[in-house]
Write a structure and sequence with these properties.
Blueprint (H helix, E strand, L loop, with lengths): L1 H16 L10 E8 L13 E5 L11 E3 L16 E9 L6 E9 L1
Length: 108
Amino acid sequence: MKTFIIIALVAIFFFAACKKNTVAPYQSQGVITGVDIFYCGFAGHCGGVKITIKNDPTPNPPAFYHIDTALTQFGISPDATFPINVSINWKHDPNYAGYIIVSKLKVD
C-alpha cells in the first residue's frame, strides 16, 4: 500500500510539473498579394512585396503593408502564384511608413 501511495504522489508531482507551451509560434496570419514595383512612399522608398495582415493589432491598420525583402529570402520562389497565405512575426519599420520588418515567415 505504501508503494502505491508513493508512486501515486510521484505521478501527481510529475504531471503537475508539466506545462503546456501555449505561446503561438507566429504572432500573425497574412496574405502576400504580390510584388509592388511602382509604390514610392513619402521617404522615396520604392517597391516591395505587398502583404495584408489578418489580425493586425495596429489601430486603423492600412489595407496592406510592404515588405522590403526578397521573397527568396523566405524560401518563396520568384515564380510563385499569388496570393500566398503565410504566418509571420513582424514589427513596423521605424524608418519607412507602410513597411514592416518580418523576422519569421512560414508559407501555410
